[in-house]
Amino acid sequence: MALSRFGSNPRMKVMWHLSWPAIIEQVLATMVSYVDTAMVGVLGAAATASVSVNASSIWLINGILAGIGVGYSVQVSNAIGAEDDARARRIIRQGILATVVCGMAALLLFQLLAPFIPVWLGAEPSVRPTATAYLRWYTLCMPFAAASAIFSAILRCMGNTKTPLIFNFSANLINLILNFFLIYETRTVTVGGFSLTVPGAGLGVAGAAIASAVAWAFAGSMLLYVGIRQGPRFQVRFREGFRPDSSIIQMALHLGLPSALERATINLGQIVMTALVASIGTVALAANQIATTAEGLCYLPAYGISYASVALVGQSVGARSAENARAYGSLSAKVALVLCTGLAVLLFLFAPALASLFNSDPQVVEQSALMLRIVCFAEPFFALSIVLSSNLRGAHDVRYPMVVGLICMWGVRIVLAPILVIYGKLGLAGVWIAMSVDLILRGILCTHRWHSGKWVHIAGLDAQPAVHTTPS
Protein backbone atom coordinates (compact mmCIF):
# COMPACT_ATOMS: atom_id res chain seq x y z
CA MET A 1 0.00 0.00 0.00
CA ALA A 2 1.44 3.39 -0.98
CA LEU A 3 1.87 5.96 1.76
CA SER A 4 -0.16 8.46 -0.29
CA ARG A 5 -3.23 6.23 0.13
CA PHE A 6 -3.13 6.24 3.96
CA GLY A 7 -5.69 9.00 4.25
CA SER A 8 -8.33 7.06 2.24
CA ASN A 9 -7.73 3.79 4.08
CA PRO A 10 -10.50 3.05 6.63
CA ARG A 11 -8.08 1.00 8.74
CA MET A 12 -5.79 4.01 8.86
CA LYS A 13 -8.63 6.08 10.28
CA VAL A 14 -9.26 3.52 13.03
CA MET A 15 -5.56 3.24 13.86
CA TRP A 16 -5.04 7.00 13.86
CA HIS A 17 -8.08 7.51 16.10
CA LEU A 18 -6.39 5.33 18.72
CA SER A 19 -2.82 6.46 17.98
CA TRP A 20 -2.99 10.23 18.19
CA PRO A 21 -3.75 10.47 21.94
CA ALA A 22 -0.91 8.03 22.68
CA ILE A 23 1.51 9.94 20.43
CA ILE A 24 0.55 13.26 22.02
CA GLU A 25 1.00 11.65 25.44
CA GLN A 26 4.53 10.63 24.48
CA VAL A 27 5.35 14.05 23.03
CA LEU A 28 4.05 16.01 26.02
CA ALA A 29 5.65 13.65 28.55
CA THR A 30 8.98 13.97 26.74
CA MET A 31 8.77 17.76 26.62
CA VAL A 32 8.13 17.89 30.36
CA SER A 33 10.92 15.35 30.90
CA TYR A 34 13.25 17.71 29.03
CA VAL A 35 12.35 20.55 31.39
CA ASP A 36 12.68 18.20 34.37
CA THR A 37 16.18 17.18 33.27
CA ALA A 38 17.15 20.81 32.69
CA MET A 39 15.87 21.81 36.17
CA VAL A 40 18.11 19.21 37.79
CA GLY A 41 20.94 20.05 35.38
CA VAL A 42 21.07 23.62 36.71
CA LEU A 43 22.51 22.15 39.93
CA GLY A 44 25.53 20.86 37.99
CA ALA A 45 27.00 17.66 36.53
CA ALA A 46 27.03 15.87 39.91
CA ALA A 47 23.27 16.36 40.34
CA THR A 48 22.59 15.12 36.81
CA ALA A 49 24.83 12.12 37.48
CA SER A 50 22.88 11.34 40.69
CA VAL A 51 19.73 10.98 38.62
CA SER A 52 21.47 9.29 35.68
CA VAL A 53 23.08 6.51 37.71
CA ASN A 54 19.62 5.45 38.95
CA ALA A 55 17.86 5.75 35.59
CA SER A 56 18.68 2.25 34.38
CA SER A 57 17.42 0.52 37.56
CA ILE A 58 14.18 2.53 37.36
CA TRP A 59 13.88 1.58 33.69
CA LEU A 60 14.36 -2.04 34.74
CA ILE A 61 11.43 -2.13 37.16
CA ASN A 62 9.24 -0.05 34.85
CA GLY A 63 10.02 -2.49 32.04
CA ILE A 64 9.03 -5.45 34.20
CA LEU A 65 5.79 -3.71 35.18
CA ALA A 66 5.10 -2.97 31.52
CA GLY A 67 5.60 -6.65 30.75
CA ILE A 68 3.03 -7.53 33.41
CA GLY A 69 0.71 -5.03 31.76
CA VAL A 70 1.13 -6.90 28.46
CA GLY A 71 0.04 -10.15 30.14
CA TYR A 72 -3.31 -8.70 31.18
CA SER A 73 -3.98 -6.09 28.47
CA VAL A 74 -3.57 -8.50 25.54
CA GLN A 75 -6.06 -10.85 27.21
CA VAL A 76 -8.50 -7.95 27.58
CA SER A 77 -8.16 -7.07 23.88
CA ASN A 78 -8.72 -10.71 22.90
CA ALA A 79 -11.83 -10.90 25.09
CA ILE A 80 -13.23 -7.69 23.59
CA GLY A 81 -12.55 -8.96 20.07
CA ALA A 82 -14.42 -12.15 20.95
CA GLU A 83 -17.24 -10.07 22.51
CA ASP A 84 -16.82 -11.87 25.85
CA ASP A 85 -17.51 -9.03 28.31
CA ALA A 86 -17.65 -11.27 31.39
CA ARG A 87 -14.15 -12.57 30.73
CA ALA A 88 -12.87 -9.03 30.14
CA ARG A 89 -14.17 -8.03 33.59
CA ARG A 90 -12.52 -11.08 35.19
CA ILE A 91 -9.19 -10.16 33.61
CA ILE A 92 -9.44 -6.57 34.86
CA ARG A 93 -10.09 -7.83 38.40
CA GLN A 94 -7.02 -10.04 38.16
CA GLY A 95 -5.09 -6.99 36.97
CA ILE A 96 -5.95 -5.27 40.24
CA LEU A 97 -4.46 -8.17 42.20
CA ALA A 98 -1.31 -8.06 40.07
CA THR A 99 -1.00 -4.31 40.70
CA VAL A 100 -1.07 -4.71 44.48
CA VAL A 101 1.32 -7.68 44.65
CA CYS A 102 3.89 -6.41 42.14
CA GLY A 103 3.79 -2.80 43.33
CA MET A 104 4.43 -3.69 46.96
CA ALA A 105 7.19 -6.14 46.03
CA ALA A 106 8.97 -3.45 43.98
CA LEU A 107 8.63 -0.92 46.82
CA LEU A 108 10.20 -3.23 49.40
CA LEU A 109 13.00 -4.32 47.06
CA PHE A 110 14.12 -0.79 46.18
CA GLN A 111 13.95 0.48 49.74
CA LEU A 112 16.27 -2.34 50.79
CA LEU A 113 18.70 -1.96 47.90
CA ALA A 114 18.78 1.86 47.59
CA PRO A 115 22.14 2.30 49.44
CA PHE A 116 23.83 -0.34 47.29
CA ILE A 117 22.58 0.30 43.73
CA PRO A 118 24.63 3.50 43.11
CA VAL A 119 27.74 1.71 44.42
CA TRP A 120 27.13 -1.34 42.20
CA LEU A 121 26.68 0.94 39.19
CA GLY A 122 30.00 2.67 39.75
CA ALA A 123 28.89 6.11 40.93
CA GLU A 124 31.70 8.26 42.26
CA PRO A 125 31.80 8.62 46.08
CA SER A 126 30.69 12.26 45.91
CA VAL A 127 27.56 11.26 43.98
CA ARG A 128 26.45 8.26 46.08
CA PRO A 129 24.63 10.01 48.98
CA THR A 130 22.39 12.09 46.72
CA ALA A 131 21.86 9.14 44.35
CA THR A 132 20.70 6.97 47.26
CA ALA A 133 18.34 9.67 48.53
CA TYR A 134 16.89 10.11 45.04
CA LEU A 135 16.22 6.38 44.66
CA ARG A 136 14.62 6.01 48.09
CA TRP A 137 12.22 8.91 47.60
CA TYR A 138 11.38 8.10 43.98
CA THR A 139 10.53 4.45 44.58
CA LEU A 140 7.96 5.23 47.25
CA CYS A 141 5.56 5.49 44.31
CA MET A 142 6.11 1.90 43.11
CA PRO A 143 2.57 0.60 43.93
CA PHE A 144 1.15 3.52 41.94
CA ALA A 145 3.71 3.02 39.16
CA ALA A 146 2.42 -0.57 38.91
CA ALA A 147 -1.15 0.72 38.64
CA SER A 148 -0.09 3.21 35.97
CA ALA A 149 1.77 0.61 33.88
CA ILE A 150 -0.84 -2.14 34.09
CA PHE A 151 -3.98 -0.04 33.72
CA SER A 152 -2.57 2.27 31.05
CA ALA A 153 -1.98 -0.89 29.00
CA ILE A 154 -5.44 -2.32 29.79
CA LEU A 155 -7.23 0.92 28.91
CA ARG A 156 -5.33 1.25 25.62
CA CYS A 157 -6.17 -2.32 24.66
CA MET A 158 -9.82 -1.52 25.38
CA GLY A 159 -9.57 1.28 22.83
CA ASN A 160 -9.35 4.06 25.45
CA THR A 161 -6.11 5.88 24.67
CA LYS A 162 -7.32 9.30 25.83
CA THR A 163 -7.48 8.53 29.56
CA PRO A 164 -3.78 7.52 29.82
CA LEU A 165 -2.97 10.71 27.90
CA ILE A 166 -4.86 12.88 30.39
CA PHE A 167 -3.52 11.39 33.61
CA ASN A 168 0.04 10.57 32.57
CA PHE A 169 0.47 14.09 31.22
CA SER A 170 -1.14 15.54 34.35
CA ALA A 171 1.43 13.64 36.38
CA ASN A 172 4.22 15.23 34.37
CA LEU A 173 2.81 18.70 34.97
CA ILE A 174 2.47 18.02 38.71
CA ASN A 175 6.07 16.80 38.73
CA LEU A 176 7.21 19.98 36.97
CA ILE A 177 5.38 22.31 39.37
CA LEU A 178 6.59 20.48 42.47
CA ASN A 179 10.15 20.53 41.11
CA PHE A 180 9.95 24.32 40.99
CA PHE A 181 9.21 24.50 44.71
CA LEU A 182 11.11 21.49 46.06
CA ILE A 183 14.45 21.53 44.20
CA TYR A 184 15.51 25.16 44.71
CA GLU A 185 16.00 27.44 47.70
CA THR A 186 13.67 30.37 48.34
CA ARG A 187 14.64 33.07 45.81
CA THR A 188 13.56 36.36 44.31
CA VAL A 189 12.33 36.31 40.72
CA THR A 190 12.02 39.52 38.69
CA VAL A 191 9.41 39.58 35.91
CA GLY A 192 8.55 42.76 33.99
CA GLY A 193 10.15 44.96 36.63
CA PHE A 194 8.28 43.32 39.51
CA SER A 195 10.11 41.28 42.12
CA LEU A 196 8.46 38.22 43.57
CA THR A 197 9.71 35.98 46.36
CA VAL A 198 9.26 32.34 45.39
CA PRO A 199 9.33 29.87 48.29
CA GLY A 200 11.54 26.84 47.93
CA ALA A 201 12.46 23.82 50.04
CA GLY A 202 16.01 23.63 48.68
CA LEU A 203 16.01 19.82 48.63
CA GLY A 204 17.99 19.51 45.39
CA VAL A 205 18.01 16.04 43.84
CA ALA A 206 15.83 14.63 46.65
CA GLY A 207 13.23 17.29 45.85
CA ALA A 208 13.10 16.09 42.24
CA ALA A 209 12.49 12.52 43.44
CA ILE A 210 9.73 13.56 45.86
CA ALA A 211 8.02 15.52 43.09
CA SER A 212 8.10 12.46 40.81
CA ALA A 213 6.74 10.15 43.52
CA VAL A 214 3.79 12.44 44.28
CA ALA A 215 3.02 12.92 40.58
CA TRP A 216 2.97 9.22 39.76
CA ALA A 217 0.94 8.45 42.88
CA PHE A 218 -1.73 10.72 41.41
CA ALA A 219 -1.56 9.16 37.93
CA GLY A 220 -1.57 5.57 39.16
CA SER A 221 -4.51 6.02 41.50
CA MET A 222 -6.59 7.81 38.84
CA LEU A 223 -5.84 5.24 36.12
CA LEU A 224 -6.81 2.44 38.49
CA TYR A 225 -10.05 4.25 39.35
CA VAL A 226 -11.00 4.76 35.69
CA GLY A 227 -9.91 1.23 34.78
CA ILE A 228 -12.45 -0.34 37.13
CA ARG A 229 -15.27 1.97 36.02
CA GLN A 230 -15.23 1.55 32.22
CA GLY A 231 -18.95 1.77 31.54
CA PRO A 232 -21.65 -0.88 32.11
CA ARG A 233 -19.95 -3.50 29.90
CA PHE A 234 -16.62 -3.58 31.72
CA GLN A 235 -17.18 -1.93 35.10
CA VAL A 236 -15.68 -4.02 37.89
CA ARG A 237 -18.36 -5.47 40.15
CA PHE A 238 -16.88 -6.11 43.56
CA ARG A 239 -19.54 -8.71 44.36
CA GLU A 240 -18.01 -10.88 41.62
CA GLY A 241 -14.98 -11.33 43.86
CA PHE A 242 -11.21 -11.06 43.52
CA ARG A 243 -10.20 -14.67 44.06
CA PRO A 244 -7.08 -15.51 41.99
CA ASP A 245 -8.06 -17.08 38.66
CA SER A 246 -5.42 -19.65 37.71
CA SER A 247 -6.31 -19.69 33.99
CA ILE A 248 -6.00 -15.92 33.65
CA ILE A 249 -2.81 -15.79 35.73
CA GLN A 250 -1.27 -18.60 33.69
CA MET A 251 -2.11 -16.83 30.44
CA ALA A 252 -0.76 -13.56 31.86
CA LEU A 253 2.48 -15.35 32.63
CA HIS A 254 2.55 -16.90 29.15
CA LEU A 255 2.02 -13.53 27.48
CA GLY A 256 3.69 -11.20 29.96
CA LEU A 257 6.67 -13.15 31.28
CA PRO A 258 8.58 -13.16 27.97
CA SER A 259 7.88 -9.43 27.60
CA ALA A 260 8.99 -8.78 31.19
CA LEU A 261 12.11 -10.89 30.66
CA GLU A 262 12.79 -9.03 27.43
CA ARG A 263 12.54 -5.69 29.22
CA ALA A 264 14.60 -7.07 32.10
CA THR A 265 17.41 -8.34 29.87
CA ILE A 266 17.49 -5.07 27.96
CA ASN A 267 17.42 -2.95 31.09
CA LEU A 268 19.97 -5.11 32.89
CA GLY A 269 22.14 -4.53 29.86
CA GLN A 270 21.52 -0.81 30.23
CA ILE A 271 22.63 -1.09 33.86
CA VAL A 272 25.86 -2.68 32.67
CA MET A 273 26.20 0.14 30.15
CA THR A 274 25.59 2.71 32.88
CA ALA A 275 28.39 1.18 34.93
CA LEU A 276 30.65 1.34 31.86
CA VAL A 277 29.71 4.98 31.25
CA ALA A 278 30.24 5.81 34.94
CA SER A 279 33.77 4.42 34.69
CA ILE A 280 34.50 6.99 31.98
CA GLY A 281 33.69 9.88 34.35
CA THR A 282 31.01 12.20 35.71
CA VAL A 283 30.94 14.34 32.55
CA ALA A 284 30.30 11.26 30.42
CA LEU A 285 27.58 10.08 32.81
CA ALA A 286 25.83 13.46 32.66
CA ALA A 287 26.16 13.62 28.87
CA ASN A 288 24.78 10.10 28.56
CA GLN A 289 21.71 11.03 30.63
CA ILE A 290 21.02 14.14 28.57
CA ALA A 291 21.48 12.37 25.23
CA THR A 292 19.23 9.50 26.39
CA THR A 293 16.50 11.97 27.35
CA ALA A 294 16.77 13.90 24.08
CA GLU A 295 16.85 10.72 21.99
CA GLY A 296 13.27 9.99 23.05
CA LEU A 297 12.19 12.70 20.61
CA CYS A 298 12.85 10.29 17.75
CA TYR A 299 11.12 7.13 18.83
CA LEU A 300 8.22 8.46 20.91
CA PRO A 301 5.75 8.36 17.96
CA ALA A 302 6.59 4.68 17.55
CA TYR A 303 5.58 3.95 21.13
CA GLY A 304 2.33 5.88 20.65
CA ILE A 305 1.52 3.93 17.50
CA SER A 306 2.46 0.63 19.15
CA TYR A 307 -0.08 1.23 21.93
CA ALA A 308 -2.80 1.46 19.29
CA SER A 309 -1.53 -1.35 17.07
CA VAL A 310 -1.27 -3.92 19.86
CA ALA A 311 -4.91 -3.19 20.73
CA LEU A 312 -6.01 -3.56 17.10
CA VAL A 313 -3.96 -6.68 16.46
CA GLY A 314 -5.12 -8.19 19.78
CA GLN A 315 -8.80 -7.50 19.08
CA SER A 316 -8.39 -8.90 15.56
CA VAL A 317 -6.90 -12.07 17.02
CA GLY A 318 -9.84 -12.31 19.44
CA ALA A 319 -12.21 -11.94 16.47
CA ARG A 320 -10.22 -14.63 14.55
CA SER A 321 -9.39 -12.26 11.68
CA ALA A 322 -5.88 -12.81 10.31
CA GLU A 323 -6.59 -10.29 7.55
CA ASN A 324 -7.27 -7.44 9.98
CA ALA A 325 -4.35 -8.37 12.23
CA ARG A 326 -1.92 -8.41 9.29
CA ALA A 327 -3.26 -5.19 7.81
CA TYR A 328 -3.19 -3.20 11.08
CA GLY A 329 0.25 -4.51 11.98
CA SER A 330 1.85 -3.67 8.64
CA LEU A 331 0.17 -0.28 8.44
CA SER A 332 1.36 0.73 11.91
CA ALA A 333 4.96 -0.18 11.02
CA LYS A 334 4.91 1.93 7.84
CA VAL A 335 3.52 4.99 9.62
CA ALA A 336 6.05 4.70 12.46
CA LEU A 337 8.92 4.36 9.99
CA VAL A 338 7.96 7.53 8.11
CA LEU A 339 7.41 9.65 11.24
CA CYS A 340 10.54 8.51 13.07
CA THR A 341 12.80 8.90 10.03
CA GLY A 342 11.72 12.53 9.71
CA LEU A 343 12.36 13.17 13.40
CA ALA A 344 15.79 11.53 13.16
CA VAL A 345 16.79 13.99 10.45
CA LEU A 346 15.68 16.92 12.60
CA LEU A 347 17.51 15.54 15.64
CA PHE A 348 20.73 15.27 13.63
CA LEU A 349 20.44 18.87 12.45
CA PHE A 350 19.57 20.40 15.83
CA ALA A 351 21.51 18.12 18.19
CA PRO A 352 23.82 20.83 19.66
CA ALA A 353 20.97 23.25 20.31
CA LEU A 354 18.88 20.53 21.93
CA ALA A 355 21.71 19.35 24.18
CA SER A 356 22.44 22.90 25.33
CA LEU A 357 18.92 23.18 26.77
CA PHE A 358 19.72 20.60 29.45
CA ASN A 359 23.13 21.59 30.78
CA SER A 360 25.42 24.60 30.79
CA ASP A 361 28.69 22.62 30.94
CA PRO A 362 30.33 22.94 27.46
CA GLN A 363 31.91 19.47 27.69
CA VAL A 364 28.59 17.84 28.59
CA VAL A 365 26.79 19.64 25.75
CA GLU A 366 29.44 18.72 23.18
CA GLN A 367 29.43 15.04 24.11
CA SER A 368 25.62 14.88 24.26
CA ALA A 369 25.28 16.36 20.77
CA LEU A 370 27.77 13.88 19.33
CA MET A 371 25.89 10.94 20.86
CA LEU A 372 22.61 12.16 19.37
CA ARG A 373 24.13 12.39 15.90
CA ILE A 374 25.54 8.88 16.19
CA VAL A 375 22.23 7.27 17.16
CA CYS A 376 20.09 9.13 14.59
CA PHE A 377 20.96 6.58 11.91
CA ALA A 378 19.54 3.74 14.01
CA GLU A 379 16.25 5.40 15.01
CA PRO A 380 14.13 4.26 12.00
CA PHE A 381 15.11 0.65 12.72
CA PHE A 382 14.35 1.12 16.41
CA ALA A 383 10.90 2.45 15.49
CA LEU A 384 10.20 -0.71 13.47
CA SER A 385 11.29 -2.93 16.36
CA ILE A 386 9.08 -1.05 18.84
CA VAL A 387 5.91 -1.34 16.74
CA LEU A 388 6.43 -4.82 15.29
CA SER A 389 7.43 -6.39 18.62
CA SER A 390 4.18 -5.00 20.08
CA ASN A 391 2.25 -6.42 17.15
CA LEU A 392 3.85 -9.82 17.66
CA ARG A 393 2.84 -9.76 21.34
CA GLY A 394 -0.73 -8.89 20.36
CA ALA A 395 -0.67 -12.02 18.16
CA HIS A 396 0.70 -14.14 21.07
CA ASP A 397 4.14 -14.44 19.42
CA VAL A 398 5.75 -13.28 22.65
CA ARG A 399 8.94 -15.33 22.75
CA TYR A 400 10.51 -14.00 19.57
CA PRO A 401 10.80 -10.35 20.76
CA MET A 402 12.34 -11.66 23.99
CA VAL A 403 14.97 -13.67 22.08
CA VAL A 404 15.73 -10.70 19.83
CA GLY A 405 16.15 -8.41 22.85
CA LEU A 406 18.44 -10.92 24.54
CA ILE A 407 20.63 -11.49 21.48
CA CYS A 408 20.91 -7.85 20.48
CA MET A 409 21.59 -6.50 23.98
CA TRP A 410 23.85 -9.21 25.37
CA GLY A 411 25.30 -10.63 22.18
CA VAL A 412 25.90 -7.32 20.43
CA ARG A 413 25.79 -4.21 22.62
CA ILE A 414 27.35 -5.64 25.79
CA VAL A 415 30.13 -7.32 23.80
CA LEU A 416 30.85 -4.49 21.37
CA ALA A 417 30.70 -1.49 23.72
CA PRO A 418 33.66 -2.39 26.00
CA ILE A 419 35.74 -3.24 22.94
CA LEU A 420 35.08 0.18 21.41
CA VAL A 421 35.53 2.03 24.72
CA ILE A 422 38.59 0.24 26.08
CA TYR A 423 40.45 -0.97 23.01
CA GLY A 424 39.07 1.45 20.43
CA LYS A 425 39.63 4.43 22.79
CA LEU A 426 36.30 5.92 21.64
CA GLY A 427 34.98 6.80 25.12
CA LEU A 428 31.26 7.49 25.35
CA ALA A 429 30.95 7.38 21.55
CA GLY A 430 31.86 3.68 21.67
CA VAL A 431 28.86 2.99 23.91
CA TRP A 432 26.49 4.76 21.53
CA ILE A 433 27.91 3.14 18.40
CA ALA A 434 27.36 -0.27 20.00
CA MET A 435 23.81 0.75 20.92
CA SER A 436 23.13 1.83 17.34
CA VAL A 437 24.27 -1.52 15.95
CA ASP A 438 21.98 -3.24 18.47
CA LEU A 439 18.95 -1.13 17.46
CA ILE A 440 19.51 -1.64 13.73
CA LEU A 441 19.70 -5.42 14.12
CA ARG A 442 16.53 -5.44 16.26
CA GLY A 443 14.59 -3.61 13.58
CA ILE A 444 15.76 -5.99 10.84
CA LEU A 445 14.92 -9.13 12.84
CA CYS A 446 11.45 -7.96 13.92
CA THR A 447 10.59 -6.91 10.36
CA HIS A 448 11.60 -10.32 9.06
CA ARG A 449 9.52 -12.11 11.69
CA TRP A 450 6.38 -10.11 10.98
CA HIS A 451 6.59 -10.64 7.23
CA SER A 452 7.32 -14.36 7.67
CA GLY A 453 3.74 -14.79 8.98
CA LYS A 454 4.71 -17.36 11.64
CA TRP A 455 2.65 -15.41 14.18
CA VAL A 456 -0.52 -16.40 12.26
CA HIS A 457 -0.01 -20.03 13.26
CA ILE A 458 1.00 -19.13 16.84
CA ALA A 459 -2.22 -17.10 17.25
CA GLY A 460 -4.25 -20.00 15.83
CA LEU A 461 -5.64 -17.85 13.02
CA ASP A 462 -4.93 -20.47 10.35
CA ALA A 463 -7.15 -23.04 12.05
CA GLN A 464 -10.41 -21.26 12.95
CA PRO A 465 -12.93 -19.19 10.96
CA ALA A 466 -13.04 -15.45 11.47
CA VAL A 467 -15.73 -13.59 13.32
CA HIS A 468 -16.47 -10.49 11.24
CA THR A 469 -16.20 -7.64 13.75
CA THR A 470 -14.54 -4.26 13.64
CA PRO A 471 -11.90 -3.58 16.33
CA SER A 472 -12.87 -0.92 18.88
Radius of gyration: 22 Å
Give the topology string: H per helix, E per strand: HHHHHHHEEHHHHHHHHHHH
Strand content: under 5%
Q: What is the residue-mean pLDDT, rounded to a whole number?
A: 86
Number of strands: 2
Structural class of the helices, strands and pairings? mainly alpha
Number of helices: 18
- Give the CA-CA distance, first to last residue: 23 Å
User: What's the main sheet like?
Assistant: 2 strands, antiparallel
Low-confidence region ranges: 1-7, 465-470
Question: Order of strands in the sheet with the most strands?
Answer: 1-2
What's the shape? globular
Main location: membrane
Protein name: Probable multidrug resistance protein NorM
Transmembrane segments: 14-35, 55-74, 95-117, 137-158, 165-184, 204-228, 335-358, 370-388, 400-420, 426-445
Pfam families: MatE
Give a description of the structure.
The structure is a single chain. With 472 residues, the protein is mainly alpha-helical. The chain has one domain. It is 78% helix and 3% strand. The protein has 18 helices and two strands. The protein has a two-stranded antiparallel sheet with strand order 1-2. A hairpin with a 2-residue loop joins strand 1 and strand 2 (194-201). Helix 2 packs antiparallel against helix 3, helix 11 runs parallel beside helix 14 (362-375) and helix 15 (379-394) packs across helix 17. The two termini are 23 Å apart. The relative contact order is 0.14.
